[in-house]
Amino acid sequence: xxxxxxxxxxxxxxxxxxxxxxxxxxxxxxxxxxxxxxxxxxxxxxxxxxxxxxxxxxxxxxxxxxxxxxxxxxxxxxxxxxxxxxxxxxxxxxxxxxxxxxxxxxxxxxxxxxxxxxxxxxxxxxxxxxxxxxxxxxxxxxxxxxxxxxxxxxxxxxxxxxxxxxxxxxxxxxxxxxxxxxxxxxxxxxxxxxxxxxxxxxxxxxxxxxxxxxxxxxxxxxxxxxxxxxxxxxxxxxxxxxxxxxxxxxxxxxxxxxxxxxxxxxxxxxxxxxxxxxxxxxxxxxxxxxxxx
Amino acid sequence: xxxxxxxxxxxxxxxxxxxxxxxxxxxxxxxxxxxxxxxxxxxxxxxxxxxxxxxxxxxxxxxxxxxxxxxxxxxxxxxxxxxxxxxxxxxxxxxxxxxxxxxxxxxxxxxxxxxxxxxxxxxxxxxxxxxxxxxxxxxxxxxxxxxxxxxxxxxxxxxxxxxxxxxxxxxxxxxxxxxxxxxxxxxxxxxxxxxxxxxxxxxxxxxxxxxxxxxxxxxxxxxxxxxxxxxxxxxxxxxxxxxxxxxxxxxxxxxxxxxxxxxxxxxxxxxxxxxxxxxxxxxxxxxxxxxxxxxxxxxxxxxxxxxxxx
Lengths: 293, 310
Hints:
The complex is a heterodimer of chains A (about 290) and B (about 300).
Chain A: H1 2-21, H2 25-44, H3 81-117, H4 119-133, H5 137-148, H6 152-179, H7 182-189, H8 194-231, H9 242-249, H10 257-285
Helix pairs in contact in A: 2-3, 2-10, 3-4, 3-6, 3-8, 4-6, 5-6, 6-8, 7-8, 8-9, 8-10, 9-10
Chain B: H1 2-26, H2 34-37, H3 44-54, H4 60-72, H5 86-121, H6 126-140, H7 143-157, H8 173-199, H9 202-210, H10 214-251, H11 256-265, H12 269-297, H13 299-308
Helix pairs in contact in B: 1-12, 5-6, 5-8, 5-10, 5-12, 6-8, 7-8, 7-10, 8-10, 10-11, 10-12, 11-12, 12-13
C-alpha cells in the first residue's frame, strides 16, 4: 500500500510545488500597474478624460499611424483614449475595492454568526444565503436600476448583493472547522466568551480563505461592472468606464477598431491578472490542493 | 427516488416564491410603482386613475396576494412601451434566449469535457499547459469583449459570418461562441482536475499496471468524473441564462436580454418585472432538473437524504 501511494503521488507533488514556489509575476506586475493607474491616473492623464475636441476625432493610436499628442488615439468626440482608460481604471478600482470590502464584511459577519453560534439562527442565515445565491446578479441589477437609476454606488450595491453569499457560504464551513479545534474549546473552557473566541481565535484563522475569495472576487467585480456599463445600466455617460467605452466602440468597429479593442485589453488583462494571483494564493495557502490540481 | 423528487420540487417552488416576492417588495420599497408603470409625462390625475385601476391603492398584503394570483394565471400585466401584454412579449423572446443558451451550453459541455480530459490524461504535458492557460484566459475575458473581437475578425475583416440579428442558422455561431467561452473554461478546469484525481486512484493504477486498453480505462475514468462535471455544468447553464443578456445586447439577438434593456430604456417597469420573473422561474426549473440528474447519476445523494432527512 505504501509503495502504491509513493508511485502514484510522487510526480505530481514535486511538480506542483515547483509551480507554487514561483511567484505569479505577470499577475503581480499587471495588478500593480492597474492600482497605480487607478490611484494616480488623474495626475498621469495627458488630457481631461471628458474633454471633447471634434477637430481631433477618431485619431488612431501611435503604433497604427497616429501621433504622439494622443498616444492611444481619440474617440468619435475627439476625447483622448489614454486619459479615458486611466479614468476607467479609477472606476474599476473603486468598484472592485468597494464591492470586495463591503461584500467581504457582510459575508464574513454572516459566516461568523451562523457558523459559530449555530442553531436556528444558522439555519435561517444559511437558507437566506442559498436563496440569494440563486438570484442571477445581472437580473437583480436590471430590477434595481429600473427602480433607482444608474450610478457607481448602484453598481457597487448590485455587486455586493451578488457576492456576499459566496463569502458567507465558504467561510461558514471554515468557521465550523476552526471552532471544533482544541484551542478554541480551551479558550471557552478558560472562560472566554463567544465574542472573544470569534474575534480573537476564529477570525484570524479564516483570513487565508478570505484572501483567496477576495482576490477572485476582484476579477468578478470588474467584469460585473464592465457588463453593467456595457449594457448602459452601470457607470452613466459621459464618465468613462471600460465597459461603456466598449459599448461606445461598437458603432465604430469598421472604422476605428482601437475603440473596440483597447478598453477590452485593459479590462481582460486586469481580470486575468487578478484570477492568476487568486489561483496562486489558493494553491499557496492550501497545502491540500498542492497535489495534482 | 420519488420522495427525493418531491422534496426537491417543493424546495424549487419555495425558492421561486421567495425570488418572485423579492421583486415584488423591491418595487414597493419606495412607494407604489404607479409612477413607474405610468407612461412618461402623464398628468397627476391620470396617475391617480391608473393607481386605482391597477389596484395600488389597496393595502400591500392584498396586492401581494393578487400579484401571486395573477402570476399563477400567467398574467404579468401590460407593457407601456409595446402596448401589449407582457407575457406575449416575454415568451417568444425566452424561446430565442433558450435557443442561444442551449446551443452555447452544448458547445461548452463538449469542448470543455474533451479539452479537460485531454489535459488531465497528460498532466504537465504541453497540451495540458496550453489548455490550462487558455482556460484561465477564457474564464477572465468578458463575453461581450470576446464577442466584439469575434465580430471584428469574422464579420468585419473576413466577412464570413453575420454579426447582428437572428436570421439564418449562421447568425447563432458568433453569439454562441462568445457565450460558451466562460463555461467551456470552467468545465475544462473541473474535468481536468477530476480526471487527474481519479488517475491517481488505486483502481486506475491497478488497471494501468494490468495493461487494460486505454479506451476501457478512459470509460472508467469518465464515469467517475461525471458527477462533479454535471454539477458544475448545471450551475453554468443557470448562469448562462443571465449572461445571455450581455451577449444578446451586443449581437442584437431578439431574446429576453434585449427586451429587458429596451424596457429599462423606455422606463417600462411591467416589462422589466415580467422578464426578471420569467427568467427566475426558468432558472429555478433548471436547478431542479440538475438536481434530478444528480440523483439519477449518484444513488448516494438521494439515499443519504432519505436517511438523514435533510
